[in-house]
Prior knowledge:
Elements: E1 9-15, E2 33-41, E3 45-52, H1 76-85, E4 92-96, H2 103-117, E5 122-127, H3 131-145, H4 157-166, E6 173-178, H5 183-186, E7 214-220, H6 223-230, E8 236-238, H7 244-254, H8 264-270, H9 275-287, H10 293-302, H11 304-312, H12 328-342, H13 344-353, E9 361-362, H14 363-373, H15 383-399, E10 404-405, E11 411-413, H16 416-428, H17 432-446, H18 455-465, H19 479-495, H20 499-517, H21 522-537, H22 541-556, H23 564-577, H24 581-599, H25 604-625, H26 629-638, H27 644-647, H28 664-678
Parallel strand pairs: 4-7, 4-8, 5-6, 6-7
Antiparallel strand pairs: 1-3, 2-3, 9-11, 10-11
Amino acid sequence: MSTRNTSPASHLSYPSQSMQQPSDFTGGIQGDTVIAGTTTAAGGTTNFIISNGPSRKRTPFSTVPFAPDPDFVDRPDILAWIHDNCARPGARAALVGLGGVGKSQIAIRYCYDIRDTSPQTSIFWVYASTKARFEEAYRDIADRLELPGRENPKADILRLVRNWLCEETNGQWTMVLDNVDDVETFSSRKGEQDKPSESPPASLAVYLPQSPNGSILITSRNKDAAAGLAGGYKNIKEVQAMDEAQGLQLLRNKLLQDALTDDTIDLLRALDYIPLAITQAAAYINRRARMTISKYLDEFRRNNNKRENLLNWDIDDIRRDDSASNSVVTTWQISFERIRKERPSAADLLSLMSFFNPQGIPESILRRHSRTVSRTVAKPGCEDEANNEFDEDFDTLQAYSLVSATTETDVCEMHALVQFCTRIWLSSFSDAEWWKQQFVQLMARELPNGEFKNWAKCQQLLPHVESLYGAEPVTEKFLKDWAKILTNSAWYMWMTGRYKIAHDIAIKALNAGERANGQDDQLTLISVTVLALVLQSQGKYSEAEKLNRRALEGREKELDHPDTLTSVYCLAYLLHKRRRYREASELYQSASNGYKQKLGSQHPKTIACLNYFTAMQQEAGEERQGPSRTSVDNDKEELREIPTDGASTLHDSEAMPEQTSSLKSKKDSFYTRLKGRMGRKDR
């Protein structure tokens, strides 16, 4: 008989005509039953004792919706971890990582490994991105199991499946919960599990049993969501991008022809070794007859618009869920939107970070910026609260695998591809330019000038501002900040001997400064001085002299401006190297006297200026006597040397003590004499 009877026993009574001749039974008995015996009661009633028969043994089956992938690239360390962690009774484990990093593909391979090594184990694939998809998957399982009562419109399908999974006599099973990204969908809320069955709890977590005959593997982009179901962060394995060998193998597997070239590694690097991006690129190359890896890489690098088009290109992939996009941009924008919904301040942090260099992002700078924009810092004693807010934002981005902390305490990093897709996402609602301007303002505050004492910070920040060199702000409002960044960058590069790039940047800085601040603004004159020093280092003395004189003339308009001595010193040195000794001598004397008045006779800048003055006097004397071959060679080499102490006086005001009023008349006298001397020119 074909139907299931879930009661332990049933009693059916039928009257008989006589004790000797029981009545014939013509009705049907449904269920897996046996007649355990009969009894005859007084009055001629025959009782049939009917009980459930032995349960029918089910053949293990799988609901994994994908066939084995012939292009799969083994990631043995991850698969070994899954096998080890899912071997325990009632085990739960989770794979966490960026969308498109290969979590689901690894889970599929694990399922087929189980089918091979443990054929008696049933495998259930549950797509869990939403409550509706979870319920749909459980209904499919109920149908495959032919659970009684499932066709009742009022049946609690989720509970029916859960109860079956909890029953150890039903055999071993493994479940994959794919795409558990929403914390709230599976969050357990206190008291909801105690609600009556006719009012099911909002949380779906109660329908995931922890029975010793089953295990659950979770895939998620969200570490917090995964930890809530896996039993803590210790049961999580982070899936990173592929290594070089794995990326090469995947690209080779996906291409129609083995057409790897010398550009292959460059392409993989450009794609950050993300499996979905590699698969997408291979599909694009396969689709176009004349497309090659080299041509694809050229298009990828051509400009941002072309790169966006390539990363947005979508084509059906039977290896992925129907609802999942095969576009890298769309795949990651799902995470971006979820973060913006869950924690807008974390989305703001992601937006700002997308403009940094992907490596070595200084966390301290991000934290300071967070404090400046946080409303809480306006209240006394709320700095700790602002720091806590930043930590929550950063942890949210880490939970989604969008940023990662490094072993260095103060820096973090991102995938360059994630940054680019973040900027595309920002552009979709016209926020990209605004966030770029916020980044420019931040770097203008943080990047110091190129003095030696600032080299460590310059070295840290220079990679982050390099992208700005060719990115002039679209509005005049931020031109001043951009000019400052370029000036300080050129200053540092000149100090470290990178004259060519320093020259190019310094010219841009000067042009931007003149437009933003005017020709005689003191910040513009700093740009003039930096460019003059760069030109001098390149041997372009005539151009350098013109700029030095311009800087000096501009600073003379503010007689007591601290940078005036800088211009005097730099011009003296330049004229010294051009062997215009008389004018250089007057300027050296003016500069050294000024330093004595401002800084004292023992200050390093005063001493350096006097030392160059003395050296020049010796050179002038030797030249009158006729230089030796050796001295000529030394002089040629020295022409490109710059007085470091003199260069560091670009911001003398940082080192100058307050002057007493008794020095005021001396300063005025000094600048008056200086102006008179600058009116005379040497040979």
